[in-house]
Every structure is written in C-alpha cells, then in structure tokens.
Hints:
Blueprint: E1 15-16, H1 18-28, E2 35-39, E3 52-53, E4 63-64, E5 68-71, E6 82-90, E7 105-108, E8 124-127, E9 131-134, E10 137-140, E11 150-151, E12 162-164, H2 172-180, E13 185-189, E14 193-199, E15 203-204, E16 215-216, H3 219-229, E17 233-240, H4 244-257, E18 260-264, H5 274-282, E19 283-290, E20 292-293, E21 297-304, E22 310-316, H6 320-338, E23 349-353, E24 357-358, E25 364-374, E26 380-384, H7 394-397, E27 401-405, E28 411-412, E29 417-422
This protein binds adenosine monophosphate and magnesium ion (MG).
Amino acid sequence: MAQLTDDCFAFSGDLLPVDEALSLLTKRLTAVVGTETVSLSQARQRVLAVDVIARRNVPPYDNSAVDGYAVYHADLNADAETVLPVRGRVAAGHPLNGPAGHGEAIRIFTGAPMPDGPDGGPDTVMMQEDCREEDGKVTLLPGIKSGSNRRKAGEDVGEGDLILKAGTRLEPQHIAMAASQGLADLEVYRPLRVAVLSTGDEVFEPGCDLPAGAIYDANRHMIAAMLENMGCSVQDKGILPDDEDSIARALAEAADENDLIVTSGGMSVGEEDHICNVIRQSGELNFWRLAIKPGRPVGMGQVKAGDGRVVPVFGLPGNPVAAFTTFTLIGYPMVQVMAGQENCPPRRYAVVLDADYKKKKGRREFVRARLTGRDESGLPKAVKHGASGAAIISSLVGADGFIDLGEDTTQITAGTVVDFLPFSEVLR
Ligand code: AMP
Ligand code: MG
C-alpha cells in the first residue's frame, strides 16, 4: 500500500486544462488501499489487485462443439455419402471407455471429450443434422472439412497466459474467466473509503421542513451515489454550517477514518467560504482553476490523519451541475487511481450537433445534451438541453451526457461532428 506525498496537488499555472489536470493526478496519485481475498460471489465490481495467470488450459481437453458423430476424416468419401458403424456413445461428463478405431463412428454430444484412438483418435465431428442413423449404422454427407466441430484443448486460454490484469474492475465476464480456471476466490483491493460532506448555512437535509432562504442538499446525495456506483465505501459526514470549528472537527474525524474526503460548497474565496481556511490551517490547499464550463475553482487539499497518512480533500463547487461536472471529469479518475483501478478514460463517441453553438475560447465546455435519432450518415444527433446554468439540475436529468467542446473551439455549426461523453461511461 502506497502513501501519498504532501505536495501531490501542487500546481503553479493559471488556468489548468482538463487534460493537464488528469495527467497530473494520474502521475502523482497512487493506490492507497490494501487488499483482501473475496469469493467469486463477492467479487463483482471489485478491483482485482494482482495479475491472474492461467493455471490450466481451457477447455482442458479436446471436445465436441455440436451433437453428432465423431469420425476419422480420412474414412470419409470426398464426393459421396459414407456409411460407418456406430461403435459407442460419449456424452459431456462421460468420456468413452477405451479407444475409437478407424472405420467407425462414435455418437457424441456437445462438450463431450473427443474419444482417444490410434493416430490421435477421431479428428472431426459431423453434425447430427447432416447424418442419418439406422440399424446401428450412420450415413454421413460428403464435404465436411477435417477438424470441423472439434474444440481444441487450450483454444480459449493456454496454461501460463495472462488472463486478468491487476487493476481490472471485475465485471461478469471477468468472473466467468476466473471461474473457468477453477479459482474460487480472488485478491481484490479493499474499497476506497470516502467521506462526503456538504457545507453551507443555507443547505438542509431532504425530509426536513425548509426554512425561508434555505435549499435542500442535492450535492451530498449525488456525490455519495456516484461514489457508491464506483464501489467506494462512503461515510456520510452530513451538512456542516459555515463555521470553521465544526468544519475543522469534521475534517479531522473524516481523515482518520477515510482515504479521501469530498466536500461541496464553500470553495470560492468569499468570506463565507470557511472550508478553504480550515484546510489551509490543517494541511495544504491548492486551488485549481480548471479551464472548464460549468465549473469553478476546485480545491485540491490534503489534511493529515492521526496516523500520519496524507488524506486528499477534493473540494467541489457548490452549484450542483458544476459539482457533477467536475466530479465526473476529475473526481472519477482520481477515485479510480486511489482505488487501484487501472485508469481507463471514459469513452467518447462521435455525434452530430443539431443546432449552431457559440462558446468562449480558452476553456473546455461540457454541454448537457440528449441523443435523439440519427442523421443521414447514421450518427446519433445531439440536442442541447434548453437551460444550461451551473445550478440547473434539470439539465442533468434531461441529458444523456456531455458534448465535449475543446478549448480552442468558438463556433460550431449545426451538423458538425462533435465528441460526446455519455453519463453511462462514468456513472457505473
Ligand atoms: P458555494 O460554492 O458555497 O458558494 O455555493 C454556490 C451555490 O451552490 C449556492 O447557490 C449554494 O446555495 C449552492 N449549493 C451549495 N451547496 C449545495 C448543495 N449541497 N446542494 C445544492 N446546492 C448547493
Ligand atoms: Mg456556501
């Protein structure tokens, strides 16, 4: 398990482009979680901690891919039907007792081991649809290629192959691979422990009555859900008032019990933004002015836990859409690296913008959009959500993802092909 350094977020520039922020994070952060062994039934969505090398061939033996008759190809007539006596029966789980000879056919079923015999045994399986069995004899159609319908030992995986890489988030297909090797359990990283808290005297918990001038806390629940989707173990530290003592106490407690702290609100440099002062007093704070819209400075802080660990504090902007966007772009890869997951950037897809769009040069813009239908060339069409402010949660609900417009872009005309980042790429 690695330790983070005190200056892992140091950055001296002015506006920080998203790609630079990402490469900075992936270079300076590292997996901070230990490992544990879990059974296959507990392994889904966990992050594999070690490479897995195949201990055996899969399939372990040559077997039939169909129901039919196993024969020596050399026994078949090239241009005419062949009639052979049926001399045995082999089903999955029930290998043939003894060898199969030249000049005979063996009834065989899918998954059954190919029979042994002289010259390596029968080499070909004729599908039952191409055969007629009568009175202990089978008539086979001509034209089959040697080796047809025979699955070779090791054709899927060979002993010694690297089958699963450390850092892989385990999906059902990876679990199938491990199971096919006979592995009953896997070494995985422990879930990253993340504390989530909101700040703001105006922020109240859903479920309570809302006083005048107050709003419900959307961010904390949104961020917790995103982290849980990513397999983190989330500790809810609630809503903190704009008061330095309470924030200091909460951060210290959170650091002792977690690997990362995610906060929202209070990250501007206004006089009510107390969380900045607290982080500065108890550790380090670097403001990153990300060159993005929506988004504002995000706070990349570090506080020390009682045991000496450096615990990053990721301070998100208070506006929910800005929080969502910065968490999606920066928080998601950050969590991946710290949780040991191989950093796999979310995939972007080509879509066609349905209307003209103007933007400012110098910052990357993430426009919430819905996909509807396809254009003449077959590409999905992206329709921008009507309202687009950083506080408009309905722009997230009404969208399938972000249109990702580069720093240098200023004007796009309808019909232009643009990059689209689906929410499904980052919210799983
Ligand atoms: P701040 O970053 O604290 O200046 O907040 C910026 C805006 O986001 C203000 O309008 C806040 O009321 C709002 N805001 C802050 N925290 C939350 C939250 N947890 N949920 C919803 N809105 C919030
Ligand atoms: Mg605030």
